[in-house]
Each structure stands twice: as structure tokens, then as C-alpha cells.
Design brief:
Elements: E1 9-11, E2 17-19, H1 26-36, H2 40-46, H3 52-64, H4 66-87, H5 91-98
Antiparallel strand pairs: 1-2
Helix pairs in contact: 1-3, 2-3
Length: about 100
């Protein structure tokens, strides 16, 4: 199958898809759509440095590679949860608990 080029998308040296001319990863735009249910126009309002063309291209790339990117998202969430479990309660939470301001 021939390689497909996406307008506004380039790969960094590690093969991570980025919006061309920015340091914004395609997966970050996809997460805005998934987590907040933002459409392209709302993503543009929240990130005015990105053009609508860049955002639409990022979303198209995400939907064309959804299975792979969803696996990456799940792996990142699993890692965050693992680190959270390892680190235990924060110093602030411990202090608030001691003061009786946190259950």
C-alpha cells in the first residue's frame, strides 16, 4: 500500500506525527476531541495558534490511525496510573488530612 501524505502533518525523528511547524502532537488534538468532546472549531478557539486546516488534518490522521493511537493513549493512561500508585499521597494531601480538611 502506498504511503499517504497528510497536509499539515509531519513525523518527528521518532516517528511521532506532529502538526507541521509546531510542537503539537496529533494525539494531543485527538485527546482534546475525545476528552472534551470539542469539535474542530472549539479546538481552534482553545488553541488559536493552530489553523483549522491543521486541526482537521490532525483529526483525519487520528481517525485513519485510530486503533494505533488509541493503544498509545491507553498505554499512557496506564503509565500515569502506575506512577500515581507508586508515588502514594502527595505532601499537600497528607498535610490536609492531618489538618482534618480531607477525609
Amino acid at each position: 500500500m502506498p504511503a499517504v501524505a497528510y497536509a499539515h502533518i509531519e513525523m518527528d525523528p521518532q516517528g511521532v506525527p506532529l502538526l507541521a511547524g509546531t510542537r503539537t502532537k496529533v494525539i494531543e488534538v485527538a485527546l482534546d476531541h475525545l476528552a472534551h468532546r470539542w469539535n474542530a472549531e472549539e479546538i481552534h478557539r482553545q488553541h488559536p495558534h493552530l489553523s483549522l486546516g491543521q486541526i482537521h488534518s490532525a483529526l483525519a490522521y487520528y481517525f485513519d490511525h485510530q486503533e494505533e493511537l488509541d493503544r498509545q493513549i491507553t498505554a499512557q493512561l496506564d503509565k500515569v496510573e502506575s506512577l500515581r500508585q507508586e508515588s502514594g499521597p502527595s505532601l499537600a494531601a497528607t498535610k490536609l488530612k492531618r489538618q482534618g480538611r480531607l477525609p
